[in-house]
Amino acid sequence: MKNILCIGAGYVGGPTMAVIAKMCPDYEVNIVDINEDRIQRWQSDDLPIYEPGLKSIVRETLNKNLFFSTDIAGNIKKADIIFVSVNTPTKTFGIGAGKAADLQYWEKTARQILEYSDSDKIVVEKSTLPVRTAQAMERILNSGDEGIHFEVLSNPEFLAEGTAIKDLLNPDRVLIGGHGTETGRKAVAELVKIYTHWVDSERVLTANLWSSELSKLVANAFLAQRISSINSVSAICDATEADVSEVSRAIGMDSRIGKKFLQASVGFGGSCFKKDILNLVYLCDHYGLHDVANYWEQVVLMNQYQKTRFVARMIATMFNTVVDKRIAILGFAFKADTGDTRESPAIDICHQLLDEHACLTVSDPQALDNAKRDLADYQDLVTFEVDPYLATENSHALAILTEWEEYINLDYNRIYASMVKPAFIFDGRNILDHDQLFTIGFNVYPIGKPPLTHI
Ligand code: NAD
Ligand code: UGA
């Protein structure tokens, strides 16, 4: 039985390996992490991440051909193929701070692989990395004198949180980058063999290493660019009484544009879009391509603008002050169907409202533990309440910041009755029935659509 190891049991490592274990019963899949608590939770009923469909797959495979452990050395030794899926956040210090990828976890992993290996291995970059990281990885791995051969491949992950299992089971494509040498081609074939257990072979693309690394950054940059583009259009709509949903529909039906990722919002969040674009910006600057760097940086700047614009509008609408006003925040996760709040637009929006001395009640079905950590500096001004009816009671306004389905079907008559009047709704995701809310009595402020107001 071939032995696969994944280093890093996070949002990518956990679900990806669980799916490989399920679809490839002829492989033993091990996952290691330095975080003991995470490893324990993967082995319990209380998984460390919330992802629809994940629990049943882990239950089905756990301790059959899927194993979690903190024994990094022992598992490196016995592995044939090692996926590295550690975090690669933006650097917060030194050269490149605020833009470049912080590769400290990455490099430590490479050194551990070198230290504990006593046989040839295929090492797979699963994390998102700057272009040509594989070269640095190869230099570290091949600095030993044991005569062991390490073949480095790039296999970036394209899953989105909230739909990770669906994306993994039915990916648009799997991308595998490797060297064109004999050992490179052999290693690529090994990885293709794993994925073709369940993915059609025409969806498994092979490429050179650098194209594969770059494609991951570019895919995220293009996706985020679409959101910033439509959000910039939402500002024009707000100024002109055009309706951004109508514009999205009209342009999205052009098959050259396509309809996905044209939903105007309070801004994109998540651990990767901003970090990966800034990583791309840093790379462009590094290669002297300053105009290209500025072009991509604008996607991030537009996202920041959209969040600030949302808050400015809330304040202006509520008679230019939110001091001591109770505002219910419905949704704190960066998107629906996840408890993840990394880079959630809700963080910035809440900070800005708290700086204006508003009193917030934050509600979210999955993300309240993370929200408490994210807003720890403002303990006195924030309360947390999982029940949206209690969260909105006695509030002057409510703001929808995550597109949770359950917020669409709340009893808004009941909510209106319990709120201070005039009652305001700021729908930062354009998911509610605005006409109905207006009929109930609310003053309704969507994104990029004319407001419906009684005042
Ligand atoms: P994460 O923070 O959830 O998980 C990373 C894990 O690696 C952590 O549990 C950490 O403890 C562990 N780790 C760090 N150093 C280690 C070491 N030396 N040995 C063992 N374990 C170690 O991160 P994530 O969201 O899973 O992202 C991982 C990578 O995948 C990143 O590069 C990210 O850009 C990329 N990615 C993420 C997503 C996503 O949806 N989150 C999607 C595609 C790609
Ligand atoms: C994104 C990509 O979609 C994945 O392909 C990629 O693998 C991943 O980043 C990564 O590299 O981490 P993710 O961030 O999990 O996935 O979620 P998305 O569905 O892309 O949403 C990102 C943000 O954009 C969310 O805040 C979402 O609410 C927002 N969004 C999305 C919009 O505001 N409008 C849209 O039309 C779509």
What does this structure look like?
With 455 residues, the chain is an alpha/beta fold. It folds into two domains: 2-199, Rossmann fold; 207-455, Rossmann fold (3-Layer(aba) Sandwich). 44% of the residues lie in helices and 14% in strands. The chain has helices at 13-23, 36-42, 54-61, 72-78, 104-116, 133-141, 164-169, 182-195, 209-240, 244-252, 273-286, 290-317, 345-355, 368-374, 388-392, 405-408, 412-418, 434-440, and strands spanning 2-7, 27-32, 66-69, 81-84, 121-125, 150-154, 174-178, 204-208, 326-330, 359-363, 382-384, 397-400, 424-427, 443-445. The strands form three sheets. It has a six-stranded parallel beta sheet with strand order 3-2-1-4-5-6, with helices on both faces. Helix 1 (13-23) links the parallel strand 1 and strand 2. The longest helix is centred in the middle third of the chain and has 32 residues, at 209-240. The mean pLDDT is 97.
